[in-house]
Each structure stands twice: as C-alpha cells, then as structure tokens.
Design brief:
Blueprint: H1 3-34, H2 41-57, H3 63-86, H4 94-116, E1 121-122, E2 132-135, E3 138-141, H5 142-164, H6 166-176, H7 178-183, H8 188-213, E4 216-217, H9 223-236, H10 241-261, H11 269-283
C-alpha cells in the first residue's frame, strides 16, 4: 500500500474526527454534570449554522463577524433551552429528562423545517480556506488545517475553564454531588446554564466548520453528526472532555480508513459507527478514558 495514500486518509480522518470531538464536548459537559444525554445537541449545532448563514446573506455581516455572532447566539439559545425545558424537570426521574431531550430535538428540527424550509441552502466558505497544499505527496485543504487548529484551541479554552476557574470548580463539584454543592452556597442553576452555554457554543463552532466542509445546510443536518458525536463521547468516556476529543479522532480515522481501504463497505459507514457504540457499551461502558461516576 502506498504510504502517501495511507497518510492522506489518516489526515482526512483526523480532520473529520476533530469536528466529531468538538461537537462531542458539549455532550460530555452536560452529561458530566446532569447525567443527561442531551439528544438535542446536534440540532443546536444546526441552529448555529443558520445563525451564521443569515448573518452573512440577510444582514450582510463579514463572515468572521457572522460566525462569531452565531456562536454567541447559539450559546444564548442553549441557556434558553436549559431554562425552558430542562430546569423544570431537574428533580424529576431521569427518564423524564431523557424524554424531554428527545422532545426538544424534535421541536427544533420541525421548527427549523417551518422557519427555514427543508430545501438545502449553500453555506459560505471563505476563499482562502479553499486552497489545497501538497506536503510530501499529501494534499491538505486549508480548511482542514484551520479547523483542526481551531478545534485544539477551543479544547484548550474549555479545559482551562473546567480546571482553572471558579466556574469550572463549581461544575466539577456539581458533577460529584449536586446537593452538597447547593449547601455550600453555589448557584447551581447558574452554573448549569453556563455549562449549556459552553456546550452549545462548542456545537455551533463545530457545526460552522462542518457546514464549510460540506457546504450546504438544512434543518435535519444535525441528526447524523450529533449521533456520531454521541458515539465519540461514549467511545472516549462520556463525562471526560479529553476523552470526547480522543473518541472523535478515533471515530473519524476509522470511518475514513474503512471507506478508503474497503470502498465496497462505504454504504456501511454509519453502521460501523453505531456498531462501535454497541461494542463499547458491552465491553467497556466507561469508554477509553472514563471512570465510574457516583449515582
């Protein structure tokens, strides 16, 4: 097998996996605190893409301003979803929160179909990101380079917030024991809302990079990336931010190598991802870097 061919596929897999990992970070942040799988996360990603789209084509904002504003507005949308949907069932049985998450997902998808129509829309990609570089026989799109760098930067910012700020310490305390954290005077609802904001902002950033990679958007675009990001979070160890990124990278590499080495199995690409989810839950439910969490 040609080395440059294999290197090309691994780099493509890393680029795709970085996006899975960034979206998975939002899953793992919310689960780490609330033990809630936010199935609406992929649809929040979709909302961020539409914010960016309309910022450019309706309000004529520069692309960078539109993308930044979209991330901020999506973070605000995450807070509103927490306040309106999840906070009222905070003390209800977990199954109630899970059903609520599924309901929010369906609501956002159908609201998107009503507001934006089901017709795909072309998404803007800055011209300088469309250049292709060739290094040692490996062709790399500038978009993939910048996407991966930005993914690492955002991961570093999120890890800094979690481990080196008062808000992050409060998040970790809530994850360990919410009731005791309340007794210590922490405003739990505020911290959880901030967690949703950070997770939603990461989803928006990942979604915008996804939309530039596959330059069209539609109201159902978040379903498959959202589910695969969930697989990535479970693979890396749901509740572990670094593990979510590692899981995303591994999933991306496996997917791309599968299609490259066995083109006849390309139709099973999505099935392989969910088969990995089943195997992880059967043989290592805590994932690669996860640890057993208190009930």
């Amino acid at each position: 097998m040609d080395f440059s061919f294999l290197a090309q596929q691994v780099i493509n897999g890393i680029s795709l996996g970085g996006l899975y990992g960034l979206i998975a970070v939002g899953y793992t942040l919310v689960y780490g605190i609330l033990r809630l799988i936010n199935f609406a996360h992929g649809d929040i990603m979709m909302i961020g893409c539409y914010f960016a789209f309309y910022g450019i084509f309706m309000f004529s904002l520069p692309w960078w301003a539109s993308f930044l504003l979209a991330v901020i507005l999506t973070a605000a949308a995450g807070i509103l979803i927490d306040i309106g949907a999840y906070r009222p069932v905070r003390n209800a049985p977990r199954i109630s929160a899970l059903i609520t998450a599924i309901g929010v997902s369906f609501l956002l998808e159908n609201l998107g179909l009503v507001l934006f129509s089901g017709r795909p829309k072309a998404f803007y990609r800055p011209e300088f990101l469309s250049e292709i570089r060739e290094i040692a026989g490996v062709r790399i799109l500038d978009l993939n380079i910048w996407s991966f760098v930005l993914t690492l930067v955002l991961l570093g910012v999120i890890l800094f917030i979690i481990h080196d700020t008062r808000t992050g310490r409060a998040m970790r305390c809530i994850a360990y024991d919410m009731e005791t954290t309340k007794l210590m005077g922490v405003d739990v609802n505020r911290i959880i809302a901030l967690t949703f904001a950070i997770g939603s902002a990461a989803a928006a950033a990942g979604g915008i990079m996804w939309a530039m990679r596959y330059p069209q958007i539609n109201p159902l675009m978040g379903i498959i990336p959202g589910l695969k990001a969930f697989v990535a979070a479970v693979l890396g160890g749901i509740g572990n931010v670094t593990g979510a990124m590692l899981g995303g990278l591994l999933l991306g590499i496996i997917e791309i190598l599968l299609v490259a080495l066995r083109p006849d199995m390309a139709g099973y690409r999505d099935a392989i991802a969910f088969a990995i989810l089943i195997l992880i839950l059967l043989f290592r439910p805590t994932g690669l870097m996860g640890q057993k969490l208190p009930d």
